[in-house]
């Protein structure tokens, strides 16, 4: 009997694959410049956006990675504009009156409730695979995103979406978002990296924080806010049952945050045993590496990019480290970078001469056009939530959210049918935009077969 169990467990572990769940760009995609500390978002404020192009760019990236053999999933956007948020803040009247008054009296609030920021699903939640959890289930905690109002509006719907897709309690466990207070400020998987050997092997979880809420030495960024707290990262580790031997907590370098590195995934990316990072990613680089080496069951492969090769300015402008690092069957890895990496000579030279020619598993670089997202400060890695799933867990995923050619075609046609090709700031007050968005999202839930997850569907 024990041999049968051991063999079954071995097969289960060998079947584990990482699925990248990309966020669909929503119909209200715009450039409001809402994210303080996000240099790209702030610098493109007020530009005319193209929601249709943005969504199709995201779908094209998903399709190309699916065709290359990587497992790919889809997460829906949020309901926007969030008229319920405006009503909760004292605005009243019909939907049209609500939008008109908000545009006149509180234009920044209107921009916030129209934000399509949920496209960056790296911020949606923190995920622990079943291999690492004591109860053998995949654990999810939606990020509270309390550091900015436009993102604070997301967690309730995010939780419903995750619960609808990962609904089988035998395989998946869901936790509430942390208390939405500065002490437990949580930005999700953008500040979390799992390192190990294969996806089915035990991993070590690297949580990166910007500040301590209780105590600490006071060394924090001076210009931009540190969005993740140590206390939030520790709380999530406890929720998921992770022990001290499975976790490393490292402080992000304050200089990097002040340069526009608002999340760790803008300055470092990990996959398997590889940690690709900038010299100024961590406040104490050596202590972080030493602890990872001590706790990992396989050898850490650090790929360090020195400041002299890529400046912080170039790192932020190109989003070199906000790239996807993907495992291939032969043990090599592919780096999926935004097109902006080619536009920075130092960055492109680093990719060719330091990464591809270095002694590490990175053997290929793929360039993707996600310019509409990049202008708001989100690269390829921002657009996806990584979920390691066994074969049985993939079979237990509800709805039609795992991408195939048919679903891609249906979603692309859905976008072309419902999305505008031009959206300026003044368009956010158009009540027709709200109607178009709700109509599109109602149809989307039927395409993805996830049931009623939006407030307008639950009322």
Overview of the structural elements:
- The protein is an alpha/beta fold.
- The chain is built from 19 helices and 15 strands.
- It has a single domain (2-80, 115-458), classed as L-arginine/glycine Amidinotransferase, Chain A.
- 36% of the residues lie in helices and 17% in strands.
- The protein has a 3-stranded mixed beta sheet with strand order 2-1-15.
- A hairpin with a 6-residue loop joins strand 6 and strand 7.
- Helix 3 (51-67) packs antiparallel against helix 17 (405-418) and helix 5 crosses helix 6.
- It starts with a helix and ends with a helix.
- Mean pLDDT is 93; it is low at 1-5.
Features:
459 residues, alpha/beta, L-arginine/glycine Amidinotransferase, Chain A, three-stranded mixed beta sheet, 15 strands, 36% helix, disordered N terminus
